[in-house]
Fold this protein.
Amino acid sequence: MDAFSEWFLWLHKEHGVKLTIFYDEWDRGRFLWGIWTTIRLSFVCIILSVVIGIVGAWLQMSRFVWVRSVVQGYIQFFRNTPPLIQLYFFYFAVDAALSGLLGTRGGVLDSFGWAVVSLSFFAGAFNVEIFRAGVEAVPRSTAEAAEALGYTRGQVYRYVTLPLAFRVSLPALNNNLINLLKTTTVAYAIAAPETLYVANQIWSDEYNVQEMMNVVWVVYIVLVGILVWLMNRWERSIRVPGFGR
């Protein structure tokens, strides 16, 4: 046992501060796995929610009323219901319905998979509106100039409107993605082995609720801080002088 682990063991024996994750190999291993699961869950949900936002913003410009109505219904459903209720809906209702339809046993997806689906749709609903606002901020004359050069409607969105809209949308998108990372804690409710769930297992075994809750608090401060730093650097790197200000 190295000096680092011995110090935390001494801290427990002398002062009652029981941080087993620093001197017990089993607790440390499962807690690190919980953090890694949170990182994976956040990364996948961020990517999928951004894709949903981009596609949804495009569909909102559709010439067909029914397409715009479907997108608007999706937005209203996911923006106006709690993410925990949505998670339960997917994990219990949708999974059971799909299992019966497909004739499978044990569920279509595991808890991690349904957490990805639910949280991606939840954050994606906000991202659709964020990108829509960004698209509307792009001057119409810019799109018209691209159309005059022979660009198709899809090419105008992909090569002209979306890149400019992305720059305008980044501040609001940053806030939503940070909120998404914090919202991943609801996956605890369906036993997805993320940070909070694993921490709960540890404090149930070791009776060190106060210590583990403080550790979880610090972990999320670090994770959010890293995401904020990355997003701010990204925002500065793609900034167009004089645009979006």
Notes: The chain has a mean pLDDT of 90. The chain has one domain: 33-192+224-237.
